[in-house]
UniProtKB/TrEMBL annotation:
GO terms for molecular function: metalloendopeptidase activity. SUPFAM superfamilies: Duplicated hybrid motif, PGBD-like. InterPro entries: Cell_wall_metabolism_enzyme, Dup_hybrid_motif, M23ase_b-sheet_dom, Peptidoglycan-bd-like, PGBD-like_sf, PGBDSf. It holds the Pfam family PG_binding_1. Residues 343-443 form the M23ase beta-sheet core domain. This is Unannotated protein. Residues 57-113, 157-213, 252-309 form the Peptidoglycan binding-like domain.
Length: 464
């Protein structure tokens, strides 16, 4: 049976040092005000050395960075101004971790944020000059797990309690309570957390989920040479992003800064500049870039946008046309286990039975599959390009008229129809990519680069 794909993405990028376990983003509200604002009426007092509402400077930046490190969104980023946005983000942080909600950096809040406090703030008696704020000292990050020690369902003990506490700190109620048993309650809560954060909703503590809960160290993006002949100049960075873990709104860190620099290099203005915070300004800038480039306008850093910006490497194989008529959906389970010890070698694009299937490129039909000859694939074809690269289509309901071995086809030509033949009960297209006729490669980023699942109108491409 061919299976759905779930894109495995690691959504939270963490730069700097300590991340308080399990803290996740909360809405930051409106953009920062640039005018003077009256001091909060709260009776709470800032800890020694910590800023008050309306303050500006490095000590405010230290607090703002600590809030961002803990996964909370902050409109305007770490701009060094203790304004309404900073106060709202601070209140959200205090609420989530169970502190008194004051909007003030009191001693308890400073301790949980892991920013140092001083015994006093020195002020000269004969002058209004205030001494510089103390340097923020942040201890090294200590994570409870590694990728090799993540607990699985059925586990018990302190390790499971750590997971349940992280979920609780993130604002999710663990069904069954913090009992140290990884059963259905914890599984259900992890699924809820994953859904809320846009992760693969499996109920398992995978790497992406563990990073989002701050249970393991973030996975670094691969380092590569500068992009050659990119659509924009991104020479300011030598690090390409991982296509499977593109930053999303609410993230902060170097990966976000890489995207922002690419947008600026492309001539798109970002309010606040490359501050490393994926907030409203970056969202709007992405929409402007997508509009200018004729891409789907979402404000999200999807694969086509990232490729056009030059922040990810282009796929080794490219296609001219998305293979399925929308509405459709797909996600990534490349090399996911299958029955009989097999691994999944394609991407499954789910669509209504009978939807059109298009040739992804110019080529020749070099092989046919039928229900009678291939019980796994059902009805299908092999579309081969001149260099030997071929695309395997499986589970078709039927082939289009005139499609047989030796047929020359053009990109966008209808070659068949979505079905559920072979080993599946779900109508979908299973498509594989074999460069130069060799082993299959992950096709997900290749189809994502031309994603057209929202396009329902048939392509007007004549038969070859």
């Amino acid at each position: 049976m061919s299976h759905n794909h779930t894109k495995f993405i690691s959504r939270i990028v963490i730069a700097g040092a300590t991340l308080s376990m399990g803290l996740v983003l909360a809405p930051a509200g409106a953009s920062a005000s640039t005018g003077h604002i009256a001091v909060s009426s709260s009776s709470a007092k800032p800890a020694p050395g910590q800023p008050s509402f309306g303050d500006k400077g490095a000590h405010v930046v230290a607090v703002q960075k600590a809030i961002l490190r803990n996964g909370f969104s902050l409109a305007g980023g770490a701009n060094g101004v203790f304004n309404k946005s900073t106060q709202r983000a601070l209140k959200s942080f205090q609420k989530v971790v169970g502190l008194k909600v004051t909007g003030v950096v009191d001693s308890a809040t400073a301790k949980v944020l892991k920013i140092s406090t001083a015994s006093s703030t020195t002020v000269e008696a004969t002058t209004t000059t205030v001494a510089p704020a103390p340097t923020t000292t942040i201890p090294a990050v200590v994570y409870p797990f590694t990728t090799a020690t993540l607990p699985v369902r059925g586990a018990k003990g302190d390790a499971v309690i750590a997971i349940q506490k992280a979920l609780t700190a993130a604002g999710f109620v663990v069904k069954g309570g913090i009992d140290g048993a990884f059963g259905s309650g914890t599984t259900s809560t992890i699924t809820t957390f994953q859904t809320a954060k846009g992760l693969q909703a499996t109920g398992t503590l995978d790497v992406a989920t563990a990073v989002a809960l701050a249970l393991i160290a973030p996975v670094a993006a691969p380092v590569a040479a500068p992009v050659q002949n990119a659509s924009v100049n991104v020479a300011s960075t030598t690090t390409l992003l991982d296509p499977s873990s593109l930053p999303v709104r609410g993230n902060s860190g170097d990966n976000v800064r890489t995207v922002q620099k690419a947008l600026i290099a492309a001539g798109i203005e970002i309010k606040g500049g490359a501050d490393g915070v994926f907030g409203g300004a970056t969202y709007i800038a992405l929409q402007k870039f997508q509009t200018a480039k004729g891409l789907q306008v979402t404000g999200k850093l999807n694969t086509p946008t990232a490729a056009k910006l030059g922040v990810i490497a282009a796929p080794a194989v490219s296609i001219a046309v998305f293979p399925v008529q929308g509405v459709c959906s797909y996600s990534n389970t490349w090399h996911a286990p299958r029955g009989g010890g097999r691994e999944h070698l394609g991407v499954d694009i789910i669509a209504k039975e009978g939807n059109l299937l298009y040739a992804v490129a110019d080529g020749t039909i070099t092989k046919l599959y039928t229900v009678g000859t291939d019980k796994l694939a059902g009805n299908g074809v092999r579309l081969t390009q001149a260099d030997g690269t071929y695309f395997f289509y499986g589970h078709m309901s039927k082939l289009a008229d005139g499609i047989t071995i030796g047929t020359k086809v053009k990109a966008g030509q209808v070659i068949g129809y979505v079905g559920k033949t072979g080993d599946t009960n779900t109508p979908h297209l299973h498509i594989e990519v074999h460069p130069l006729g060799g082993d299959a490669i992950d096709p997900t980023p290749i189809v994502a680069a031309v994603d057209a699942c929202s396009v329902t109108t048939p392509l007007a491409v004549p038969a070859a």
